[in-house]
Amino acid sequence: MAEILKGAPAAAAINHRTQERVLALQARGIQPTLALLRVGENDADLYYERGAVKRCQALGIRTVQAVFPAGAGEKEVLDRLAELNADPAVHGILVFRPLPPQISDAAVRDALSPEKDVDGITDGSLAGVFTGSGRGFCPCTAQSCVELLDYYGIDCTGKRAVVLGRSLVIGKPVSQFLLARNATVTVCHTRTRDTAAETRRADIIIAAAGHLHTLTAGMVSPGQVVVDVGINTDSDGKMAGDADFADVSAQVASITPVPGGVGSMTTAVLASHTVEAAERQNP
Hints:
Blueprint: E1 3-4, H1 7-27, E2 33-39, H2 43-59, E3 62-68, H3 74-86, E4 92-95, H4 105-111, H5 123-131, H6 140-151, E5 160-164, H7 171-180, E6 184-188, H8 195-200, E7 204-207, E8 225-228, E9 232-233, E10 239-240, H9 245-249, E11 254-255, H10 262-281
Parallel strand pairs: 1-11, 2-3, 2-4, 5-6, 5-7, 7-8, 8-11
Antiparallel strand pairs: 9-10
């Protein structure tokens, strides 16, 4: 049975540092505040939102929820986003994506204030990831993957890493983080000819395709580390990752659980980014 790489202890280390920074800001009369903008009732969004609000409350970070029905128009969403941008009491803004088809993702990304973009969705933030400039904020989930590897002492140097998925939210940025840690990275996607061949020879697998059981027992090998980023619902209505956990965990060296793995790290990183945004806006 694989070692289970739980996110809770790694998140606790981040939370401890974040709480000290919150107290320092509050001592100056500054209340770190995160706004969460959601359109619709997507199960994964609701799960993440609950976790983020709970995490922020525990750390002393105020939250503002801007929630719209799935049929909301683009203008009303952009108008609310403009209000949050202009509000000096709001330091960070999290926009849940994907957005419904009637709302342009590009328009929302372009409208979001870069200094409040705590989940790294604007072009400026992503440019910072790819150039390594340190400007903006990294996408929280992608950063959580490598923070988890760092916490458990998993050295990426010289390792073969395979990333399943090429989204701007996880796949592409996490591949850059792995490259920065001197891994040799392969990104697999729906047009990859033989994904299983790529994953079997990897040392580290980041499963971020967003589909249940994308990674199966026939795609892994002994000694591997699997970081499962997926949030899916299985046939029993329970939360599950992209990996077929029971079968995959019987073969690999270590694996993150779902729930209890990357997800708990992501809210900790989000809270940390919110506090950093408050610090930057109040030097």
